[in-house]
Recover the amino acids of this structure.
């Protein structure tokens, strides 16, 4: 059946004819097990519907197909228990490697550590495990946040708040650190940090935003995500606060929502598709170099995209006056 071995053409033809008559097809899993390869890659995502992860999936799928492999996808909805079950189920299918965006940096990485020790390479993207040595491909969240703060300061903002994301994921940690460093370097907020905590309940989040805006006379907001930036924009509009003349807003990720609203939201662009591609390429590097124990950590650059939710810089305004 595999066209190998010392078998006469007559016998081979008779066997193939019988196989066609009985509808026989070779089992690719059995064949791959014989070759010590399943030709399947496992992928664990928080969700499908989020634009960022759908674009990352697109990049991963492109590379996996180019390599002649197949992708098996599972989601965890930011639930660590579901994530652990998904990882165990994928490993039970004898995958050759795994790509993961995990549910949170709460120390549940032991299973992945054991998986890597057993010879199954794992590459993480978007989110870090701070205490697990592994290969990661992430966006440079820290620098992106600093770029946002620098621009807001250059437009004249003097009291800038950071609207957080979930506290247990590394992306929020690094964006908040970038915000804090930007505030410190530019010597604004008079020593105080205006950090607004995230809430998973959207209606409760908006109610807290209204209270925050009432208590703090801020003139700039940097948000963990474009979705949070959109919520802030809606609340400000409801309160009759003009964006950007009274309060400027910058989001993060360049999600479609940032360009669909009025005013459109300035944001920090990150290439989710490229993150996905590099995650898959790094995984295949590990598969092709099984004896190399080095890990790869890459941070992809971001860029600021300016829209109508921010004012022009003071230099730009001076140029217009001239």
């Amino acid at each position: 059946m595999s066209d190998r071995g010392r078998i006469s053409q007559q016998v081979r033809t008779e066997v193939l004819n019988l196989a066609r008559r009985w509808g026989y097809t070779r089992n690719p899993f059995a064949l791959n097990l014989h070759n010590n390869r399943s030709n399947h890659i496992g992928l664990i995502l928080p969700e499908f519907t989020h634009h960022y992860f759908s674009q990352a999936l697109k990049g991963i799928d492109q590379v996996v197909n180019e390599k002649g492999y197949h992708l098996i996808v599972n989601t965890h909805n930011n639930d660590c228990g579901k994530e652990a079950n998904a990882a165990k189920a994928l490993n039970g299918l004898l995958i050759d490697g795994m790509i993961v965006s995990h549910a949170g940096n709460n120390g549940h990485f032991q299973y992945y550590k054991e998986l890597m020790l057993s010879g199954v390479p794992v590459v993480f993207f978007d989110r870090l495990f701070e205490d697990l040595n592994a290969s990661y491909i992430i966006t440079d969240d820290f620098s992106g946040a600093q770029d946002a703060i620098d621009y807001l300061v250059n437009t004249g903002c003097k009291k800038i708040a950071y609207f957080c994301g979930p506290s247990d994921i590394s992306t929020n940690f690094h964006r908040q650190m970038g915000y804090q460093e930007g505030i410190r370097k530019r010597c604004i907020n008079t020593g105080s940090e205006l950090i607004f905590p995230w809430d998973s309940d959207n209606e409760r989040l908006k109610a807290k935003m209204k209270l925050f805006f009432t208590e703090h006379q801020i003139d700039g907001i940097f948000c963990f995500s474009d979705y949070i930036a959109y919520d802030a924009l809606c609340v400000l509009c409801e309160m009759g606060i003009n964006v950007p003349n009274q309060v400027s807003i910058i989001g993060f990720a360049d999600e479609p929502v940032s360009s669909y609203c009025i005013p459109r939201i300035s944001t920090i662009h990150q290439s989710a598709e490229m993150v996905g591609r590099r995650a898959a390429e790094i995984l295949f590097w590990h598969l092709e170099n099984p004896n190399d124990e080095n890990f790869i950590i890459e941070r992809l650059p971001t860029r600021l995209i300016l829209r109508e939710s921010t004012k022009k810089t003071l230099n730009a305004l001076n140029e217009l006056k001239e």
